[in-house]
Amino acid sequence: MAFRWSKEMTPSDAHQKEGSTNMPFRFTGEDKRDQNSWFRHVLFNSANWHQETSGRFVNDIAKISVEVVFHGNNLGHKQMTLDHRDDRAKHNDAPTTYLHLNDELKAMLQATDCTNEYIVFERDDAGNYRLEIQAAAPNPAHIP
């Protein structure tokens, strides 16, 4: 893999916290990466970004195809939406890049408590994306 990022999921990430079932997944920089730019300009730089206005905000949006693996079961490629806005960081250094999960993955997370499990997101050299939900801690991510 060209780029890899992982995170131990909180109850909110795992769609187990009340009110979190429709929340997008928020990419955070819990390692040496700058969460305000690394996800948008490195991990997802090959995505086809465009701008959309939502209320008073202008967001960078990209539709991506993601190979999804859930507890070792390959669910195939799923369409998901990335959403990035630089000014989110002004609010307590909030994450700037979100992934809107597809309905199937949201339902699986709601039905299976994956709190304290890991989400691993990868992009290979060809620009293909892979998301895996796994119980075991992943090998340390390569930090470019």
Compact overview of the structure:
The chain is mainly β and 144 residues long.
3D architecture notes:
The protein is mostly beta strands and 144 residues long. It has one domain: DNA-binding pseudobarrel domain (At1g16640 B3 domain, Beta Barrel), CATH 2.40.330.10. Helices cover 10% and strands 39% of the residues. The chain contains two helices and eight strands. The chain has helices at 38-43, 103-111, and strands spanning 3-8, 25-27, 50-54, 57-70, 73-84, 97-100, 118-123, 129-134. Strands 1, 2, 3, 4, 5, 6, 7 and 8 form an eight-stranded mixed β-sheet that branches. Strand 3 (50-54) and strand 4 (57-70) form a beta hairpin. The termini are close together.
Q: What share of the residues lie within helices?
A: 10-25%
CATH architecture: Beta Barrel
Cα gyration radius (Å): 14 Å
Biggest beta-sheet profile: 8 strands, mixed
| Name of the CATH homologous superfamily | DNA-binding pseudobarrel domain
What is the number of independent domains? 1
> What's the CATH topology label?
At1g16640 B3 domain
The top-level CATH class is Mainly Beta
Low-confidence stretches: none
Fraction in beta strands: 35-45%
Q: What string, H for helix and E for strand, traces the elements in order?
A: EEHEEEEHEE
